Amino acid sequence: MKIVIIDYGAGNTKSVQFAMKRLGVEAILSDDAEIIKNADKVIFPGVGEASSAMKMLASKELDKLIPTLKQPVLGICLGMQLMCTFSEEGQTKGLGIFDVQVKKFNNQLKVPQMGWNSIFSLKSDLLKDIKNDEFMYLVHSFYAEICEQTIATTNYGLDYSSALQNDNFYGVQFHPEKSSTAGEQILRNFLEIS
Amino acid sequence: MLTKRIIPCLDIKNGRTVKGVNFVDLRDAGDPVELAKQYAELGADELVFLDISATLEGRKTMIDMVLKVAEHVNIPFTVGGGISSVEDVDVLLKSGADKVSINSSAVKRPELVTELANKFGSQCVVVAIDAKQINGEWLVHLAGGTVPTDLNLFDWAKEVEERGAGEILFTSMNNDGTKAGFANEALAKLSETLNIPIIASGGAGSVQHFVDSFKIGKADAALAASVFHFGEIEILDLKQELRANGIAIRL
């Protein structure tokens, strides 16, 4: 199986690559459209700021490529947020794969939300064998609202989408690569999705 | 519900843990990777590695260690000690560290906090503050607490928050090593003054001290070293006790 991690200069690619290695899978980093298109699975990671990440994607024309992909694609953290229609972070237009906006947490809360929080209302094969209220590791200041494509919710001041799915596109706000054995199970599920 | 975090801290010198640990089932208690894996399995929520190497060779070994930890450990970790530039942070994050912790270098050049937050995002910038209460005032100290400054803890914490720090690791030097509990009053004041997470450090000696750091000190996370390394407090027992005390904890 050919797993490609989209390399656009943002974030936690090494951790994702190591997490795949712990599952016995060699994932390669690439920003090459042909290599990405021909992968069996694509992981779209991201840590950092939304508007500059979108600029980096655009400079490599990956913003046009990603929405056209046909194989299973998993966006992680900022990767998931960039797959939404719009982010309040830098007032950025997103890839529009998930029909939902990304907003900033209310300033009554500590921001970023940093640490382990539970996921609820689980749907989708991506979350197979994960228990309702399982803990995942999250670090973020912006959140995707609840929508029809929500496949997991988390509460931090309000309920928001901690995972989304639209056809072959999946997105998780949490970091499965840092979420202990439960996170590994989600990555394993992603590898098994056909 | 977002849970409170329990964070073991490991001192690293030339790629090895120092001060020792007495985990009987470890082949090599000095190997940070084995120890980190063990802590992850026992339920630690995060780890902090503090580099106390004084040499360039020691720094290079630290980078190798970060790579190995990232390869083998499935929970987040922070690296601190000797970080003074954007380049230092870049190499650590690229090697797989989730966050970096800066201390003296931020006091010497506060712009560093801004630069790191702008380049890498606030989520990976932890500012560690060592402070001591002298005549009622909490003063920031440098170089492992040996050099006093005239900076007030709360003013400095506010400044680094405004500059983009994502988290504060506050060590009370009055409490550190005493095993008599965390500096809960100062912690609570920090937590109420700031809008970013606060990690309590210095003084852990019993389960009740952790309960107090969360309930009275309003900390978001608590860090300790020796009570975990010497098995005086088992992480799983601690977390069960915390939950029994009504504190949100991941089990």
TrEMBL record, chain A:
Q: Where in the cell is it found?
A: Cytoplasm
Record field: catalytic activity = 5-[(5-phospho-1-deoxy-D-ribulos-1-ylimino)methylamino]-1-(5-phospho-beta-D-ribosyl)imidazole-4-carboxamide + L-glutamine = D-erythro-1-(imidazol-4-yl)glycerol 3-phosphate + 5-amino-1-(5-phospho-beta-D-ribosyl)imidazole-4-carboxamide + L-glutamate + H(+); L-glutamine + H2O = L-glutamate + NH4(+)
Q: Which UniProt keywords apply?
A: Amino-acid biosynthesis, Cytoplasm, Glutamine amidotransferase, Histidine biosynthesis, Hydrolase, Lyase
State the pathway, as annotated in the record.
Amino-acid biosynthesis; L-histidine biosynthesis; L-histidine from 5-phospho-alpha-D-ribose 1-diphosphate: step 5/9
KW Endoplasmic reticulum (keyword) present? no
Example of a GO MF term: lyase activity
Residues in domain Glutamine amidotransferase? 4-191
Cite the record's note on assembly: Heterodimer of HisH and HisF.
Q: Name one GO cellular component term.
A: cytoplasm
State a single Pfam family of this protein. GATase
Could you confirm whether the keyword Amino-acid biosynthesis appears in this record? yes
Query: What's this protein's name?
Result: Imidazole glycerol phosphate synthase subunit HisH
Q: Where is the active site?
A: 77 (nucleophile), 175, 177
Q: What is its EC number?
A: 4.3.2.10, 3.5.1.2
UniProt cross-references to InterPro entries, sorted A to Z? Class_I_gatase-like, GATASE, Imidazole-glycPsynth_HisH
Entry-linked HAMAP family: HisH
- Function per UniProt: IGPS catalyzes the conversion of PRFAR and glutamine to IGP, AICAR and glutamate. The HisH subunit catalyzes the hydrolysis of glutamine to glutamate and ammonia as part of the synthesis of IGP and AICAR. The resulting ammonia molecule is channeled to the active site of HisF.
Q: Which CDD domains match?
A: GATase1_IGP_Synthase
- Organism of origin is Subsaximicrobium wynnwilliamsii
Gene3D superfamilies under this entry?
A: 3.40.50.880
Q: GO:BP terms for this protein? A: L-histidine biosynthetic process
UniProtKB/TrEMBL annotation, chain B:
Keywords in alphabetical order: Amino-acid biosynthesis, Cytoplasm, Histidine biosynthesis, Lyase
GO molecular function: any one?
A: lyase activity
Q: Where in the cell is it found?
A: Cytoplasm
Instruction: Identify the metabolic or biological route this protein is part of.
Output: Amino-acid biosynthesis; L-histidine biosynthesis; L-histidine from 5-phospho-alpha-D-ribose 1-diphosphate: step 5/9
Q: Where is the active site?
A: 11, 130
Q: What main location does UniProt list?
A: cytoplasm
Q: List cellular component terms (GO).
A: cytoplasm
- Quickly give the catalysed reaction: 5-[(5-phospho-1-deoxy-D-ribulos-1-ylimino)methylamino]-1-(5-phospho-beta-D-ribosyl)imidazole-4-carboxamide + L-glutamine = D-erythro-1-(imidazol-4-yl)glycerol 3-phosphate + 5-amino-1-(5-phospho-beta-D-ribosyl)imidazole-4-carboxamide + L-glutamate + H(+)
State the superkingdom. Bacteria
Q: Which InterPro entries match?
A: Aldolase_TIM, His_biosynth, HisF, IGPS_HisA/HisF, RibuloseP-bd_barrel
Question: What Pfam families does the record tag this protein with?
Answer: His_biosynth
Q: Does the keyword Amino-acid biosynthesis apply?
A: yes
Which GO BP terms apply?
L-histidine biosynthetic process
This entry's Enzyme Commission designation comes to: 4.3.2.10
Q: How does it assemble?
A: Heterodimer of HisH and HisF.
Return the NCBIfam families for the record.
hisF (TIGR00735)
Similarity comment: family membership: Belongs to the HisA/HisF family.
User: What is the name of the protein in this document?
Assistant: Imidazole glycerol phosphate synthase subunit HisF
Q: In which organism is this protein found?
A: Subsaximicrobium wynnwilliamsii
